[in-house]
């Protein structure tokens, strides 16, 4: 069994892509999973969903459930499958329902401000 810990992330977090701020929140969650870097999850209400386009990609995690993906679309670029969400997570990690996580990359920056 993978050890997963979810806690409120300290401070205010922002996610940017292609020069646009996609979201800023002081309600982020930090999910730590053994063997993986911690991941910041943003409440969906604090993200500009107009920039996100649902993708056909899905994955399954035995510890979290089925993830659905979104691509980030802005005027300068499309970043495929850069965002994921557990719409109906396993009850052990139920706190992440309604939250979005982002893959950091050259075009996606996640930072504490």
Automatic annotation (TrEMBL):
Pfam families: NTP_transf_9 (PF04248)
UniProt superkingdom: Bacteria
DUF427 domain location: 14-104
UniProt-recorded name of the protein: DUF427 domain-containing protein
Source organism of the structure: Phaeobacter gallaeciensis
């Amino acid at each position: 069994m993978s050890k997963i810990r979810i806690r409120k992330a300290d401070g205010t977090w922002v996610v940017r892509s292609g020069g646009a701020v996609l979201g800023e929140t002081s309600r982020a969650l930090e999910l730590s999973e053994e063997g993986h870097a911690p991941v910041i999850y943003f409440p969906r209400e604090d993200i500009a969903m107009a920039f996100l386009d649902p993708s056909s990609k899905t994955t399954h995690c035995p510890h979290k459930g089925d993830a659905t993906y979104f691509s980030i679309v802005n005027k300068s670029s499309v970043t495929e499958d850069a965002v994921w969400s557990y719409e109906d997570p396993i009850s052990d990690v139920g706190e992440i329902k309604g939250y979005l996580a982002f893959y950091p990359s050259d075009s996606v920056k996640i930072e504490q401000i």
